Amino acid sequence: MIPIAVPNLAGNEGAYLAQCVAENFVSSVGAFVTRFEQMVAEASGASDAVATASGTTALHTALATLGVGHGDLVILPAMTFIGSANAINQAGARPWLLDVSGEGWTLDPQRLEEALSNKTQRDAQGSLRHAETGERVSAIMPVYTMGVPADMAAISAVAREYGLPVVADAAAALGATYQGKPIAQMGADISCFSFNGNKTVTCGGGGAIVAADPKLGARARHLSTTARVGRNYDHDVAGFNYRMTNLQAAVGVAQMENLELFLDRKRRIAALYKDRLSRHPLLGAFPTPNYAQGTFWFSGAVLDRSIGDRLPETIEHLRANDIDARLFWKPMHLQAPYADCPREALDVTDDVWQRVLVLPCSTSLTEAEQEHVVAAVLSAPALQLERTRSFA
Ligand SMILES: *Cc1c(COP(=O)(O)O)cnc(C)c1O
Fold first, then answer.
1. What one-character-per-residue DSSP string does 177-195 give?
2. Helices (H) then strands (E): counts for the chain
């Protein structure tokens, strides 16, 4: 079976892991953690990065750093992986679900402005509150879907207008640029990465936080490391134990050494699928908005609306050809834990998500394997409409 996205461990991963064992540094302090943080900071245009146990814990820490707490609402696009919503939940808050734009499948700045202007009011203390539920609106969390940055100039302008901090879920976006700027300079106060096993760069599991303001980064580090003060067991707030271990970081450093190579492979894979598949009248490409350069974490195709309900059978057809293929994220308003969260119209999300076909896109995928995938997609019964039409 050709897998969707598996780790590529062809570099120094094994050697660095052996070094951790030989030096007896396997826990959450170690030279690889420091080096990994420097590499992530450099790749994202930040002065520092804080490595964490996962992308979800990075997001939770970022929210806590910005003062998101119990009873709050955090604006989130409905089209995301459940980790973004879970981080909001872990902070004691709930997501307020908004739609994405068709242009990038990222939080639509127009919808954001409308929701804030139509559905919120200031209370006597000056807090911004949801007009119907009364909950305090405390942050905005754009998601860089598949590594495509949101339209951050527009989103930051709205955030400033309403005095809201922005936490970007940049889980799969390390290496992306927005108007030529790297992740930490796109306009979010804090941006978070994931280094889960299926991401372009992996630590096995892991995450990282980068902040625009070094003071926020330092605060995030403090919270993620049990909020310890000094060398003894003194802790000034209830913090988290969300640190990355030296073992994870050893893998991460080896992966970061290949970041440019991996990004280039992902770009080529996306380009080949686009070239071969989007000529078919019933297939479209994943979004590549003009304002940003994404990372092509995932590649695949979008089925035309006329055959939108035939994605499951198309996936089965690919599996019968030894190819793993998947649906994309089921949106948050359709997930049991978040079905009751406040939400606005979700037309684009509802229209798109069930038509997204995710195809194999590991950085180790060979061109021959990719051509096999292309041929199998093009032979899917759902895409053979010419014949049906001529007999109709
Ligand atoms: C991968 C991913 C996450 C979750 O990261 P973990 O490291 O698995 O906790 C969160 N949000 C998005 C958008 C992701 O793609």
1. EETTEEGGGSS-SEEEEE-
2. 13, 16
Of ligand 1's listed atoms, the one at least distance from the Cα of 80 is 13
Token pair belonging to 278: 């989007």
CB 172 near ligand 1, within 6 Å:
yes
Task: List, in order, residues 6 or more apart from 239 with CB less than 8 Å away.
Answer: 222, 223, 224, 225, 226, 227, 228
Residue 200, ligand 1, Cβ within 6 A: no
Question: 172 CA distance to ligand 1 centroid (A)?
Answer: 7
Environment class of residue 90 by beta-carbon count within 10 Å: exposed (0-12), middle (13-18) or buried (19+)?
A: middle
Whether 54 is in the pocket of ligand 1, judged by its Cβ within 6 Å, is yes
CA 349 to chain centre: 16
Question: What proportion of the chain, given as a percentage, has pLDDT over 90?
Answer: 97
Residue-level pLDDT at 392: 46
Pairing of strands 94-98, 120-122: unpaired
Q: What percentage of the chain carries pLDDT values higher than 70? A: 98
Q: Which residues contact 146 (CB under 8 A, 6 or more apart)?
A: 105, 172, 286, 294, 295, 296, 297, 298
Burial of 236 (0-12, 13-18, 19+ CB in 10 A): exposed
Going by the DSSP 8-state scheme, the letter that residue 286 receives in this structure is P
Q: Which amino acid would we find at residue 114? A: E
332 within ligand 1 shell (Cβ under 6 A)? no
**Nearest CA residue ID for atom 7, ligand 1:** 55
**What pLDDT digit, counting tens, does each position of 210-262 carry?**
999 999 999 999 999 999 999 999 999 999 999 999 999 999 999 999 999 99
DSSP3 helix / strand / coil % (the chain, rounded to 5):
45, 20, 40
280 torsion bin: left (phi>0), alpha (psi -120 to 50), beta (else): beta
**Sequence-separated (6 or more) residues with CB below 8 Å from residue 293:** 176, 177, 178
Q: Which residue has the tokens 């990355």?
A: 244
- Mean model confidence pLDDT for the chain: 97
> What is each CA distance from 281 to 313, 350, 386, in whole angstroms?
19, 22, 10
